[in-house]
Amino acid sequence: MQGGSRERLLEAAGETFAEKGFHRASLREICTRAGMNVAMVKYHFGDKMGLYREVLHATFDAAAKARIQRTLVACPRQRLYDFIHDQLLRVRGGRRPPWYNRLMARELASPSPALDELVARGILPVSRELRGIVMDLLGEGATDREITLHSLSVVGQSLHHHHARAIIERLYPDLTYTQRDIAALAEHIVRFSLDALDAARKRITERAHGAQDNVAERGVLHSGRDVAHPSDAS
């Protein structure tokens, strides 16, 4: 196991937590695997929970740099592709350690106090980024619920290739995830999503125009009632 003491502890802890879960994993076992003593855990992370939190955050912190770069792109369609492509690389492109999926499966099945912090620190910024992209693509007039539902529909397509991995491998054994395959899959998801978002944008625009027409019509009717008819003066 290579790297500095902090990195070695994170890797050993990830493997151990994934195998045994937070409660059954011991610091002594983690440190033995890392070839270090328990004092180094206290030095770098404070305690076992501090170490566990950092293990959960590791891949999200690494993705933060890519997220910052995407904010510099003006075109929302390009930002959507970059977002989906980066996500697919993380969940199917080997950017995450092999133990990470098992660790997250344990965490989601039996949430620890660290999950709330993971959502706030790692997942919420990603969610806000996608919502911003979807908001730009839907245009003005989209409700908060519409933005949320469309965002979940977009991200669900790439996450399905992650969470249903074992089933997909059995249903479609010839489906591969090389770098080229992932780029093509990202393009497919983006085209599929843009068709739906463009259709939704059209409906939202028509709804807004219909509301404006109704307001204008009510205004005309109201002004008509206020105008005195010539026969009223006789």
UniProtKB/TrEMBL annotation:
UniProt signal peptide: none
Residue ranges of the annotated DNA-binding region, renumbered to this chain: 26-45
Record has DNA-binding as a keyword: yes
Keyword Repeat on entry: no
This protein's UniProt keywords: DNA-binding
Domain of life of the source: Bacteria
HTH tetR-type domain: residues covered: 3-63
Residue ranges of the region described as Disordered: 208-234
Gene3D superfamilies xrefs: Homeodomain-like, Tetracycline Repressor, domain 2
Any one GO molecular-function label of the UniProt entry: transcription cis-regulatory region binding
InterPro entries given in the database record: Homeodomain-like_sf, HTH-type_TetR-like_transc_reg, HTH_TetR, Tet_transcr_reg_TetR-rel_C_sf, Tscrpt_reg_YbiH_C
Protein name: Transcriptional regulator, TetR family
